[in-house]
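Annex B. Sample input.
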Amino acid sequence: MRPLAFDPESIELPSGHFINGALRDTSEERIEVLRPSDAKKLGSIPDATEATVDEAVANSLDAWRSSGWGRAPPRTRGKVLRRWADLIDRDVGQLAQLEAVGSTRPVARAYAEDVPFTAEAIRFFGELADKLGGEVASTRSASLGFVASEPYGVVAAIAPWNFPLSMCSWKCGPALAAGNAVVFKPSELTPFSTLRLAQLAIEAGIPPGIFNVVNGRGNRAGSSLVRHPQIGKVSFTGSTRSGARVMADAALTGTKPVTLELGGKSPQLVFENVPDLRHVARCIVRGFTSNAGQSCVAGSRLIAHRNIVEPLLGAIRPMLADLRPDPTWHGSMSFEPIISRPQSARIQLLITQSRDAGAEIETGGDPFDEMDGCFFRPTLIRQVTSSMPVIREEIFGPVLTVQTFETEEEGLHLAGHPTYGLAAGVHTSDVGQALRAMRAIAAGTIWINRYSRSADMIIPTGGFQQSGIGKDLGAQAVHGCLRYKSVLVDFDSCLDSDESGVPAGGRGKGKS
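Annex B, continued. Sample output.
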């Protein structure tokens, strides 16, 4: 395995927007981009104006119409996407460094996890391209009824900052496999690695304009993109509050479908009968400290049976003590930084407000003062109630609240949340109990005796309640990027009525 540590000053950054197959800088207002690991300036990007967004969308629409991408045999699109995935694998070292230098992802994890996941997701959607289609309907014998699928045209895809490369693959892979063009907006906090991804897309054979990237802030560039009347569908991952704004913006120029993967406040429910507390402790620690808790599916609420909570916490505490911060460009696995100082301050505020309301901060609760960057100590909070901010709000930091229960009914009640329903973990040795919990908890993903996604791209992800609409990953993600047309063909000449006796043009028009 190659040495992974690198000098952050040595990285050459792609810059600007990516439109019609090439990087293009502009004279627009600049956004300064900082390195989370030391809060130093990394570079800057242009903040796209409405005119730039309009240019990118118009270029994508022209490319979609002229290149034949949407009409190409699905197998041809699949081959191009698989070539793109191969190029991502080829350039894993460069992409891992670009990902690490400007985000919260340590270079070792970017190299071993994020970049391979990105390639595999795009490869998965490329392999699905010719596997999904319409269906033949059951109709009378003298007719043929079928449902045909077709792409929307141009899809707007907006990704968050916590996993820049892999989130791009989630958004763009299914849209491109379905035959759409994509205008992609990365977070203004982590813009650089996806620009390199776009360059590789052109090298793979994706026609110029089919995958454009615009940089900028969400309230300007993102809003302009979502509102654009020539956008056929919107796919967004981010906070619940931002998702609501996306829905409102999408409706301003007429209705258009949206896929939203939004916030979470996910429980890890631990029953008394678990056979291995150390295994459960490892799941819990991974669930709320991975990426320093900056994950929409972070398992931030521990709900443990009263009889095992103390030994369980006894196994968790030393694991937290072993987590030490490190800059993302160091080669060893490390505890990740918080994305920015404002986000670190928000974590601190929610903890302080809850402590003032009576919560007990058992460990952590503040930043690592000895670090230059934005690193926050893993935090355990007890004596919490449902009215406290640390229970109500998505924290997006390495914070775990602890609640206890005595009966299964009480545990399931605590596992529910009035706002969120993205994911949940259930730890039990009783299969019936696990399935009862699966049915009772309102969440789009339920993990049983584990707490993490797998490499099984076929399993979709998405939320219930205010955690989102629609699905990423799986065949469902491709279906969500297609619209469906019903077709009914009579074998004979036009008939006056169908088998039900209802006149062909008279449905719903009768007089009362």
